[in-house]
Design brief:
Helix content: over 70%
Largest sheet: none
Oligomer: single chain
Number of strands: 0
Structural class: mainly alpha
Radius of gyration: 20 Å
Distance between the termini: 22 Å
Order of helices and strands: HHHHHHHHHH
Length: 281
């Protein structure tokens, strides 16, 4: 019995060391630039939505907010990446036939609550930096009701099939770049380029869910109780079909492209044999 216990502990220690040495650096390499870009790009949006109560900030001011908030922001993204990776590989083990869908599904499930929290922290950091009263937190139930549930169907599609879809397509685009260039470009360049192009395309393809989710969030802030259909109808009545499919695409596609480029370059899904699911095979 003691020998079995020692063997089990040794196996756990070996797995932990391998995971820490091979996976953690990948998460860190992806999470740091992603959160720097996310926070820096969120600050102007918070200011624009303040109806003039917050003064505009130049790049130096925005980076000051990034520096002050990067530790919790980095920690949130690091944790989300760990959950995403494990859920994706769990789905792979459970249903191998639907493997192409697992990255979008896992990203959508793990990033919907994470991104809502990330945006809430960025908003609070912006108000604090400008010396303005921080909007009162609504508590956990209020946060879920006002920040996560409105338009959650559209939010899931937006998160899952923009970044998650880009992750699924990135390696294929990278292979195409390698073929077109005769494998003459550095691997890091083709990985980032493949992720960049796949992320931009998937972000553009999900602009309708994105704008539906934004409309639902605004409706909730105004005291309404939007559902999947009502926010879609509101968006179409306000913007029309063409703008509903395209408005805001420049900013969003650029951010998602960089995010997927970083994730693809860091290869956060490498070494699937180190996933928790693989330890129970």
């Amino acid at each position: 019995m003691a020998a079995m216990t020692d063997a089990g502990l040794s196996q756990v220690a070996s797995w932990t060391a391998a995971w820490s040495g091979s996976i953690c650096p990948r998460f860190a390499a992806a999470a740091l630039p992603i959160q720097m870009v996310t926070v820096e790009r969120t600050v102007p949006q918070v200011i624009n939505l303040s109806q003039g109560s917050l003064k505009p900030l130049d790049f130096a001011g925005r980076m000051s907010i990034v520096r002050r908030s990067i530790v919790p922001q980095f920690s949130l993204k690091f944790g989300q990446l760990a959950c995403f990776r494990e859920l994706k590989f769990f789905l792979d083990a459970t249903s191998p036939s639907t493997r192409p869908l697992h990255a979008p599904i896992a990203w959508g499930i793990t990033n919907v609550p994470a991104q809502s929290t990330i945006y809430a922290l960025a908003t609070a950091s912006t108000f604090q930096h400008l010396g303005a009263p921080v909007p009162q937190a609504p508590g956990l139930s209020g946060f879920v009701r006002t920040k996560i549930l409105p338009g959650i169907f559209w939010t899931f599609l937006r998160e899952g099939f923009a970044t998650g879809g880009g992750l699924a397509l990135g390696p294929q685009v990278q292979a195409g770049i390698n073929k077109a260039t005769g494998n003459t470009l550095p691997v890091a360049v083709t990985k980032f380029g493949g992720g960049l192009l796949a992320g931009w395309a998937c972000a553009f393809a999900t602009m309708l869910p994105h704008n539906c989710a934004l409309t639902a969030a605004r409706m909730a802030q105004e005291g309404q109780r939007p559902n999947t259909v009502s926010c879609f109808r509101m968006l179409l009545s306000e913007q029309g079909l063409f703008r509903a499919l395209t408005v805001n695409f420049q900013q969003r596609c650029a951010v998602i492209a960089v995010v997927v480029g970083c994730l693809n370059t860091a290869d956060v899904l490498a070494h699937d044999h180190l996933s928790i699911a693989s330890q129970f095979k």
